[in-house]
Design brief:
The protein is of the alpha/beta class and 420 residues long. Helix content is 36%, strand content 20%. The chain has 2 domains: 94 residues, Roll (Urease, subunit C, domain 1), CATH 2.30.40; 310 residues, Alpha-Beta Barrel (TIM Barrel), CATH 3.20.20. Helix 3 packs across helix 4, helix 6 packs parallel to helix 7 and helix 7 packs parallel to helix 9.
């Protein structure tokens, strides 16, 4: 099998390195590795000292909803307002339209360094299985450049939306591989607890991981995260559960917060914070000192809870911006969570690489090491803090060992030319 290599690269720890790839797999990592393996010059990419990273992993995005902002009526900017505004559009979705929009954002994500995306897809009686079918079709279209994992997500609730659980079962049979949930959307604690139970029951039946939207609200008295912790431990689902948003945790009292954060650590639950969306959704009723809308990132990290950052939304009813760029997401997240020291910036890198890879349970198949799948990216800048600061896209992106994206940034100050 013919080998190729990335040479003269810099790892995140600052060490110089060559990476040799054969087929889909990294076969050697280290200074001079290309020479030792006899990789010819024509099969080398010269990183010129630029930063080499594993490709990003976006473990929280909604590909079925992307790029519909222009179709929606304006609303009050809240979570409820966004959900309500999307109803009319969702009821009229066509598979080919969902497919086209999802494909555009998958491709945009690859150009900015992401080759794995976990997409939550609405499964409810409003849109039926059309969103699922459209995203699965887009995933197939883009299988040569990215891997898409689909979460069956009951946006409208299970008890509040009779018939949704039957659709969830069908979704798992038709291509979804992760069970989603949104228990805080149910009416009352008993229904919230039943929502959690139903989701874990479905996951148990399909031997599937769980990835729920949890407590995406400013109301600190909403506490479905504790229910998820309890069910995770009761079912023995340690290391197989991810929770997204968890905004209410920031508004909760200190005693509960400490207890539930410790529970997440004990249960091996990954928390995905989505600051780019929640900074614009949460705190809408506040005046003066407006809440930031994010979860307790620093407390979770201090307790040893894995924390990832996700894009969440792209030009939909919840968020008017975004392009599937996790470098941008990491920068905004660093601002929102006050992550500024060298160690904290390294945490931001982990939040878009190794932590979401852990949520996918990718193990040794992910990373820049021999034996890992060759999903890689190179930046012109030579360090992670500089890459994060400058926000230039990767110059090269590889998926399964093949180059799938290349970007050249050209800048000229006082360029020479006619008239000068």
């Amino acid at each position: 099998m013919t080998e190729h290599a990335v040479v003269a690269a810099t790892m995140a720890d600052g060490s110089p390195v060559d990476v040799v790839v054969a087929g889909e797999t990294v076969t050697a990592v280290g200074p001079g590795a290309a020479d030792r393996h006899g990789v010819p010059p024509a099969r080398r990419v010269d990183a010129a000292g630029g930063l080499l990273l594993p490709a990003f992993v976006d473990t929280h995005v909604h590909l079925d909803k992307v790029l519909i902002r222009d179709q929606l009526a304006e609303h009050d900017g809240t979570l409820r307002g966004a959900i309500d505004s999307i109803h009319a559009a969702k009821s009229g979705y066509l598979v080919d339209d969902v497919r086209r929009r999802a494909r555009a954002v998958i491709e945009s994500s690859v150009l900015t360094g992401t080759t794995r995306l976990r997409s939550h897809v609405d499964v409810d009686t409003v849109g039926g299985l059309v969103p699922l079918q459209g995203v699965l079709a887009a995933a197939q279209d883009c299988a040569d450049v990215a891997e898409v994992q689909v979460v069956a997500f009951p946006q409208e609730g299970l008890l509040r939306d009779p018939g949704a659980f039957d659709l969830m079962q069908r979704a798992m049979a038709e291509g979804a591989t992760v069970v989603g949930g949104m228990p805080h959307w149910e009416l009352g604690e008993a229904d919230q607890r039943e929502h959690v139970r139903l989701c874990f029951e479905l996951a148990d039946r399909h031997d599937a991981d769980v990835d729920m939207h949890v407590d995406e609200t400013d109301d600190g008295s909403v506490r479905t995260l504790a229910m998820v912790v309890d069910e995770t431990e009761r079912r023995g689902w340690r290391g197989r559960v991810t929770v997204g948003h968890v905004c209410a945790l920031s508004a909760a009292d200190e005693e509960y917060a400490a207890q539930v954060v410790a529970g997440c650590a004990r249960a091996g639950i990954t928390v995905v914070s989505n600051p780019v969306t929640n900074l614009v959704l949460q705190g809408r009723g506040d005046t003066g000192l407006v809440r930031r809308g994010t979860t307790r990132v620093r407390e979770l990290l201090a307790a040893g809870v894995p924390v990832a950052f996700g894009q969440d939304c792209v030009a939909d009813g919840f968020y008017p911006f975004g392009r599937g760029d996790l470098l941008e997401v990491a920068l905004v997240s660093a601002h929102a969570a006050h992550l500024t020291t060298q160690d904290e910036l390294a945490t931001c890198l982990a939040a878009v690489t190794s932590v979401p890879a852990g949520s996918w349970r990718l193990g040794t198949t992910y990373g820049v090491e021999a034996g890992a799948r060759a999903d890689l990216q190179v930046y012109a800048a030579g360090s992670w803090p500089e890459v994060l600061r400058l926000q230039d896209p990767p110059t090269h992106v590889w998926y399964r060992g093949r180059e799938v994206a290349r970007t050249t940034v050209t800048r000229a100050l006082r360029p020479a030319g006619p008239g000068r």
